[in-house]
Amino acid sequence: MREPIRDISRLQHILEQIDNTQCFTSGKSLSDLDNDLLLRYAVVKCLEIIGEAAYMLTNEFKEAHPETPWRQIINMRHVLVHGYYNITMPIVWTIINTDLPALRPQIEQYIEELTNNQA
Fold first, then answer.
1. Burial code of 90-117, b = ≥16 C-beta within 10 A, e = fewer?
2. Of 2, 6, 77, 78, which one is the catalytic site residue?
3. Is 77 a catalytic site residue?
């Protein structure tokens, strides 16, 4: 059962994995991602965790925050895990450089809101 109290923890997991992905790819290029097996696996794992954490958020929380593309985030996790043979590094690179930077401030805001509501 998904509990609202756990939403903060799931959001913190998402933020941590965004930070890990940014750390792993700082100063790197798409070519580096294509040619570095360890980097590729690390980044894909971070994206899987982001998708799983998004999936585990309560439905109430996700419905209250429709500005975040929860369904797309969760679906990407399904592709990474179940459709791994369809993964292309240019798509992953776009997620890293476009989607995650846009997602980060939203997640920070949600954590702050939930933390303030508990106080």
1. eebbebbeebbeebeeebeebbeebeee
2. 77
3. yes
pLDDT of residue 104: 98
Q: How far is CA 110 from the centre of its chain?
A: 14
* Domains of the chain, each with CATH number or no CATH: 5-118 (1.20.120)
Nearest to 47 by CA among 85, 9, 79: 79
Q: Which of 2, 6, 78, 82 is catalytic?
A: 82
What tokens does 112 get? Answer: 């702050």
Tokens of 18: 């965004």
Work out the angle at residue 111's Cα, subtended by the Cα atoms of residues 109 and 114, and round it to the nearest 5 degrees: 110
Contact 78, 86 (CB under 8 A): no
Q: Is the pLDDT of residue 119 over 70?
A: no
118 vs 95: which has the higher pLDDT: 95
